[in-house]
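Reply to dn_fold:

You asked what the input looked like. This is it:
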Amino acid sequence: MKIKFIIIFFSIVWIGIIVRVFFLAVQSNVYYENLSYRNTIKNEQIAPVRGTIADRNNKPVAINKLGFKIQLAPHLRSKKNIDIFNKEIDTIVSLLPKLDREEILKNYIKTDSFYNHNYIDIVHFIPYEDILSVYTVLSLRENIKIIPAPKRYYPYNNIAAHIIGYVSRANKKDIDKDSLLELIGYTGKTGIEKYYNSYLQGLPGKRMIKVNANNQEIEELMYESADENRKLTLSLDIELQEYISKIFEKRVGAAIVMNVDGSILAAGSFPNYDLNIFVSGMSYNMYDKLSSSLDHPFTNKLINGLYPPGSTIKPTLGLLYITTDLTENWQVNCESHLPLGKRIYRCWKRQGHGTTDITKAIRESCDDYFYKGSLVLGNEKMSQGLIRYGLSQKTGIDLPNEFIGIVPSREWKKRKYNRNWNIGETVNTSIGQGDFLVTPMQMAQQTALIATSKLPTPHLVKLIGAEPYVANLKSVFNAKELKKLPIIRKAMYEVCNHPKGTATGYIHSKVKIAGKTGTAQVVAIKQDIAKRALEHEMAYYTRSHAWFTSYGPYKNPQYVVLVMVEHGGHGGQAAGGIVSKIYDKLLELDYIKK
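and this is what came back:
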């Protein structure tokens, strides 16, 4: 019986051993093959080189500067390797004395861990000319790698800064949204660089290599190039952009030159800043100085600056008047003020304009005409019409984080403040004041709408690679508005050419243009003040914003030119000279033919 038991016991053990051997040798073969493969074959991603950006004449405005980064092998801070670590750091700093030893150590410690087996970036960028003389010495050291690492460079420094935007090091939030940024390291933060970031950064390449147990490369098995160097061609003319920046010097505000199809030739937000300081980082003192400036250089005033439109809204609103409840023959007797409840709403002209129709009201910017017209239409028709024309919504420009502005209405006020509307707010809205807010880009779009009867989508890109940007023109006018539009155009022509036009004395361009001035108050005038102080007598930050929006040539509209000067006072006086110079420059550059 004992012998039988022993035989059965050994049989079971041997069967178990045989089954286990079969499992390990046959059934688990695929598993261990894959494990072995992972231990010997390593897949690497190759970072793509960021695409360049050029202006319409192929002048580069964002390029990559040739350089290198230095990497150090991981796990060198252990007790066993610490002497090697210190020696490698000493070697690098002695050969490249401009480098900061503490910064190098910080970069290494931040990434070094037991789980990391990749070489660590300790110096993110060194210019080609600085490393050339020591490249051979460093590259021969076993623990050091010298890797090509292009760096973004903006050759025009501060020109078109808010349009082009900049790249800087990707943070954790950026990487969480796009894991590729962990490889690339940099991402677009503002402007075109951000809006078209996915296109510009390209796609990574792939590399398969065989490594030994010490993670040393033995053989390259596969190489697939990155999809990179994707070019973006802008509609901007950098020469025109430089010219506008020069004539806008020491002023604060915005300027836009836009083809009536929406393509932008130049657009500046002032003051601006040097884009290159963001690529490598700036000092805290410099950042504090720029960020605390009352002129807000970091704000893109083109799409993020919200201002009362003032009288520049009168052509658009005037068209709404004469095609809704009024006609072009409707007149008012402007006596310079309109009593309404406990308030008096003044016209800018102290002696009044007398008998005024739509043409005179736009030409001479009569506030009283628009006050009284708004009381006939009412706020609901005004706000609905202006929104239909494209206000209180994004223009659609290819820039990130565009603001929509405000066309105030009963519904808007109730929703935002839970308060009732009053008739005085209707009157204020009629002259572009009160809670009415627009961006300069919106007003340029509105001017193009008047000039051509089509609402364009402003855009900055001309070519994405070889593919042209397709302009989008929207029809928003009804048949009656199209019929009455020439009346508004004629009035805008008289603004710049009639003896009594508000801009006539300030326009000296060789191009015949149509336009509208605007003076947008930033502080309210107290009711007990009978005589308002002149703009130049007021403290700077209490002066009105000066607007001038225009299109030309008048008979064949091709371009919109808009200038807004913060705290500039009267629109024609502050901006008329700048607008004239821009049109003459368009002639000089052959954009407009005589």
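The chain has three domains: 37-65+152-232, 67-149, 238-272+299-588.
Hope that clears it up.
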